[in-house]
C-alpha cells in the first residue's frame, strides 16, 4: 500500500495552530472528512453493518459503503462475513485499532517526508 499525504491539505495543516485529529487523518491518508468520521464511529461501534453504521453517522447506506471501501483500501477497517440463521449473509466492519492507525500515520508521514527530503537533495543537480 502506498499512501501519500495530500500536499494541499498538508500545507493547510501546517498553517493550523492546533489541527484536529480529523484534519490530520484526512491529510495523511488523503481521505475525506466523512471517511474519518466513519472510521471514528466504527471505533466506537465495532462489528457494525453498513445499515447500523449509516444510522450512527446519519448518512445514507451507499455513502457509508463507499467510505468503508476507502477505509479498507487504506487499511483502516476490516470486513467480516457473517452467515445469518435465516439464510444469506451480512458484512460486519471493524476499525483498525487506534494504536495501529496511529502507527500507520507515523509510517506514512515518515515515508513521505523521506521522499520529500530526497527531492530536496536532488535540487540543483538536475541541470
TrEMBL record:
InterPro entries: ArsR-like_HTH, Tscrpt_reg_TrmB_N, WH-like_DNA-bd_sf, WH_DNA-bd_sf. It comes from Salinirubellus salinus. It comes from the Archaea. This is TrmB family transcriptional regulator. Residues 28-98 form the Transcription regulator TrmB N-terminal domain. Pfam families: TrmB.
Amino acid at each position: 500500500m502506498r499512501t501519500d499525504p495530500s500536499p494541499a491539505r498538508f500545507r493547510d495543516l501546517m498553517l493550523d495552530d492546533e489541527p484536529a485529529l480529523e484534519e490530520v487523518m484526512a491529510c495523511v491518508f488523503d481521505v475525506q472528512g466523512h471517511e474519518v468520521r466513519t472510521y471514528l464511529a466504527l471505533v466506537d461501534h465495532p462489528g457494525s453493518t453498513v445499515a447500523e453504521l449509516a444510522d450512527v453517522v446519519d448518512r445514507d447506506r451507499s455513502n457509508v459503503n463507499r467510505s468503508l471501501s476507502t477505509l479498507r483500501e487504506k487499511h483502516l477497517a476490516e470486513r467480516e462475513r457473517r452467515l445469518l440463521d435465516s439464510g444469506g449473509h451480512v458484512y460486519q466492519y471493524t476499525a483498525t485499532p487506534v494504536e495501529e492507525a496511529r502507527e500507520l500515520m507515523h509510517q506514512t508521514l515518515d515515508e513521505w517526508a523521506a521522499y520529500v527530503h530526497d527531492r530536496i537533495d536532488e535540487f540543483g543537480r538536475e541541470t
